[in-house]
Design goal:
The protein is an all-alpha fold and 481 residues long. It has one domain. 65% of the residues lie in helices and 0% in strands. It has 21 helices and no strands. The structure holds fe (ii) ion (2 copies). The site of one fe (ii) ion has 6 residues, from helix 6, helix 7 and helix 14. The site of one fe (ii) ion (FE2) has 5 residues, from helix 7 and helix 14.
Length: 481
């Protein structure tokens, strides 16, 4: 039997790299860190966040119209100018709510992985950059939450606070399924604590469950005594400090990573990428995927910002936030790319176990975040069934004020018939696929399904998306009736 765990021990950076490579590495990180330190994009976002007032921005589009909820649908064609602007604003809220959740993942795993790199020596500037990025993400998240909150409150009124277990229809299997949709998870009043424990959708708080101590001990045994036993000296300083305080292994249940698996598996992942330098680097492959997913639409915001700036027209605050966020994230994307494509080569060749975990994580990231195709939210690669309840609530909200039969009728027209919105998503889908394939070409340990982003590729079918929507709509309408 092949021993998948006793392959070369992790070596320090200095001893595994050629001189030239070390220099190139350090140079790139130094430049990125210096430029990021000198920039003031985060400060500008903070200022826009502090002074944001929805009513001062409500009369303007925050992007070109195609970045709007339900864009290109029969409903969009008939919507009034003010409804179209509301759909445009709510699109921003939706995208950045998800972005905030994904960046909360970065807040946690930047710290976990920097704690590993610190043990190796030679990565001091990289760790400083990761600390800076973590601080920046906290400000980004705050701005996305607060501006989103004010916008939703102004547009949706009382519908904004309607719980999905509210009285509008009976709680049933479908409502429970939609309950876990990230868009529905409000983080408005949630401070960003990377090790924050939240009950899972099933209502179980895994951390307080009686078996959690046993579970933690089992994970530690498997990780440190069996699978990664030669790498215990790399164990993250960040996790070590949490251990000393008696805190459990942290994990998050939101954002791209939070959707990968139930909480115990996420804790196991935390332990793995906080113990193996190679698996710490793999986090940056998923972070790079998230960076590119955000950039895919955020770049369009930035272009629109520049157009308005050139014409000396009013620039709505959320648009400016998107623009400055793109600029801030350019530093983060460079870091992700550097680690995902190059830095992992500094370490010992990954064991079969490490390669398996790496590919499994990336495969799952494709499944949960990139395998679908939305006709209702342009540039989103998850199926519309995830959002169907939100669309329904939107149609019944003060923005459209529809009766139940009207809302259902329009929902069907918007989701189950071919329209321009599907083609807008297709355009963004092709762009992302191309970018990711180009970037993953040179990562040698990836399975073909990951290197070629086959899950993302197979999700790009308008016909399949409509067929899925027909099934989901049928199930949903029966639950509402
Ligand atoms: Fe960010
Ligand atoms: Fe970031």
């Amino acid at each position: 039997m092949v021993d998948t765990t006793t392959i070369p021990t992790t070596k320090n950076q200095a001893s595994t790299l050629s001189e030239g490579k070390v220099k190139k590495h350090i140079k790139l990180t130094d430049i990125n860190y210096r430029r990021n330190t000198e920039s003031d994009y985060t400060e500008r976002i903070e200022e826009l966040d502090q002074h944001f007032d929805y009513s001062s921005n409500s009369d303007y589009y925050w992007s070109e119209p195609e970045l709007s909820l339900l864009y290109g649908t029969p409903l969009y064609d008939q919507a009034s100018p003010s409804q179209k602007k509301a759909l445009n604003h709510l699109y921003w809220v939706t995208q950045y709510n998800q972005t905030a959740a994904t960046e909360a993942n970065a807040v946690l795993y930047n710290q976990v992985t920097a704690g590993v790199f610190k043990n190796l020596g030679g990565y001091e500037t990289l760790c400083q950059e990761l600390e800076l990025e973590t601080a920046q993400e906290r400000h980004h998240i705050h701005a996305f939450h607060m501006m989103g909150y004010k916008t939703k409150k102004a547009l949706l009124g009382s519908a904004f606070n309607t719980s999905i277990q509210g009285k509008s229809y009976k709680k049933n299997d479908l409502s429970q399924k939609v309950e876990v949709a990230p868009k529905e998870r409000s983080h408005i009043n949630t401070p960003v604590q990377p090790n924050l424990v939240k009950p899972t959708p099933s209502g179980i708080n895994w951390q307080n469950a009686p078996w959690s101590a046993f579970q933690d001990a089992s994970f530690r045994f498997i990780t440190h005594k069996v699978m990664l036993k030669h790498q215990t000296h790399c164990y993250s300083q960040y996790l070590r400090h949490l251990d000393e305080k008696g805190e459990p292994i942290p994990a998050q249940t939101t954002g791209l990573l939070g959707l990968l698996a139930p909480r115990p598996f996420l804790q196991f992942f935390t332990l793995n990428c906080g113990s193996s330098p190679f698996l710490a680097s793999v986090f940056y492959v998923t972070r790079f995927m998230a960076n590119m997913l955000i950039k895919n639409y955020e770049y369009r915001y930035s272009q629109y910002y520049r157009e308005l700036e050139k014409k000396e027209e009013f620039i709505p605050a959320p648009l400016a936030v998107s623009h400055y966020h793109l600029l801030d994230e350019a530093f983060h994307t460079t870091t992700s790319q550097l680690i995902a494509q190059d830095l992992y080569k500094d370490f010992s060749k990954p064991t079969a176990y490490e390669q398996f975990i790496a590919n499994l994580i990336i495969y799952r990231a494709q499944i949960v975040g990139l395998s679908g195709f939305s006709g209702g939210i342009p540039a989103i690669f998850r199926n519309d069934d995830t959002f169907i309840l939100s669309f329904y609530r939107l149609l019944k909200s003060p923005v459209f004020d529809m009766s139940t039969p009207e809302a259902l009728q329009w929902l069907q027209k918007c989701l189950c018939t071919e329209h321009e919105g599907f083609y807008v998503t297709f355009k963004y889908h092709q762009r992302l696929l191309l970018e990711l394939r180009r970037s993953f070409e040179r990562i040698d340990y990836l399975w073909p399904v990951n290197r070629e982003m086959r899950v993302l590729a197979s999700g790009g079918s308008i016909d399949r998306a409509i067929q899925n929507n027909i099934k989901s709509f049928k199930q949903f309408s029966q639950s509402v009736a």
